[in-house]
Design brief:
138 residues, mainly alpha, 83% helix, globular
Length: 138
């Protein structure tokens, strides 16, 4: 995987870390039923369950980066696409939720950052895939 693509991937994982911090401090786990449910599965204390889930998510992203994406393993491209799509959906959902509520909702401040970086990653992956295909046809 090219250095620019792997750099954008890492930026997306770090943006997710910031997003998770925003969600924690604005207590998403108390407001949004799915977050409350997942947090409750991991701990009776929703704050701890939410922290465990989000730390695990970011740790998975860092594992993807360090173990697969940066090294350009066979699964790197699929993992990068997974993260791009996941964060596009995540960022979009937060913004739609805030817009439908007519104001700020937890996660809405960092959601645009997720969207921009996820779109950049998807664009890079799409372009690197078409370049690879062009070289294969020659």
């Amino acid at each position: 995987m090219s250095r620019p693509v792997s750099g954008t991937f890492l930026a997306l994982v770090l943006a997710q870390a910031c997003h998770s911090i925003e969600e924690y401090f604005t207590r998403l786990f108390e407001i949004l039923a799915p977050a409350r449910f997942v947090s409750g599965l991991l701990s009776e204390d929703l704050r701890i369950g939410f922290a465990i889930f989000n730390c695990s998510l970011v740790a998975f992203g860092l594992w993807c980066y360090l173990g697969r994406v940066r090294r350009g393993s066979q699964s790197a491209r699929a993992l990068a696409w997974f993260w791009a799509i996941f964060e596009l959906l995540n960022g979009s959902a937060h913004l739609v939720w805030a817009a439908s509520a007519g104001g700020y909702r937890p996660g809405a401040a960092t959601a645009p950052i997720l969207l921009v970086i996820a779109l950049a990653l998807a664009w890079q992956l799409r372009n690197s895939g078409s370049q690879r295909g062009a070289h294969a046809r020659r």
